[in-house]
Design a protein that fits this description.
Blueprint lengths: L4 E9 L2 E8 L8 E6 L2 E5 L4 H12 L4 H4 L4 E6 L5 H7 L4 E8 L2 H8 L13 E5 L2 H6 L13 E6 L19 H8 L2 E11 L5 H10 L1 E12 L4 E11 L10
Parallel strand pairs: 5-6, 5-8, 6-7, 8-9
Antiparallel strand pairs: 1-2, 2-3, 3-4, 9-11, 10-11
Helix pairs in contact: 1-3, 6-7
Length: 250
């Protein structure tokens, strides 16, 4: 019989003590993977509905005739974690390439060694990049170290807990008008920015997002929480750059 709790890896990082754990809960068939930073649980494979929905909602924004004609799509995901958002991106047949940026090389190593069974490292469309997504978004070097001028059809971010609850105070400028406008410059016309948040919709942030992009909105994603025996909810923010004009009929 498998152990009910295993610590698969533990490492000291620039953010603190990081641990990958695998746990078995009574009544849940599949093992549960958890990532813990210091005394805080960052993520659990028990709760992945919003992470998957983040990718699905972002790519659904590209499903217009004008944008579909530009496929295959190039996508960047900020934040690797357990890999559920990146996996959902790669399930879309219109995605041609995916760059996943994570600041902690240990997390990338877990995927490359299959301690986290995502399969991302084996997908030829996917490249895992060790880097600070927020610093890269400010830099002229861009979000792809191999192509500084590269633009994307979708930029999907799941790193901080919310625009107000940050893993590091240095991330704060990303959520302000100038930071969001800089990010928009990394997108193709009609490109999508999607952001996960653990909090309910923040109207103040949504107003800033609407200044930097067009048609900004927030969607609440609800899901069952079996540990607390109640419904929980996250927020997905969506915005896009101005869409290309429809093609004229011949």
């Amino acid at each position: 019989m498998s152990a009910r709790f295993e610590e698969l890896d533990w490492q000291k990082t620039s953010l603190g003590e990081l641990a990958l754990r695998r746990r078995r809960y009574p009544g849940i068939a599949e093992p549960v993977y958890e990532i813990k930073l210091n005394d805080e649980f960052l993520m659990s494979s028990l709760f992945t509905v919003a992470e998957v929905k983040l990718a699905d909602l972002a790519l659904a924004e590209l499903a217009t005739p004008e944008l579909a004609a530009t496929a295959p799509f190039d996508v960047v995901v900020g934040g690797l974690g357990l890999g559920y958002t990146a996996e959902a991106v790669l399930k879309n047949p219109d995605v041609g390439s995916l760059v996943v940026v994570d600041a902690i090389d240990a997390v990338i190593d877990w995927h490359e060694r299959a301690l986290i069974p995502s399969g991302l490292a084996a997908d030829p469309r996917c490249r895992l990049v060790h880097g600070d997504f927020f610093s890269m978004s400010r830099s002229t070097a861009g979000l792809d170290p191999l192509a500084p001028e590269r633009r994307f059809h979708a930029i999907i971010v799941d790193i901080d807990h919310s625009p107000r609850h940050l893993l590091h105070p240095g991330n704060a400028d990303f959520y302000q008008l100038d930071g969001l406008r800089r990010l928009g410059e990394r997108l193709h016309p009609g490109g999508v920015f999607a952001l996960w948040s653990n909090d309910r919709p923040d109207e103040e942030f949504l107003a800033v997002l609407a200044q930097a992009f067009v048609e900004a909105r927030a969607e609440v994603v609800s899901f069952d929480n079996p540990l607390q025996e109640r419904e929980s909810a996250n927020t997905v923010y969506l915005a896009h750059t101005p869409r290309p004009a429809p093609r004229s009929a011949p």
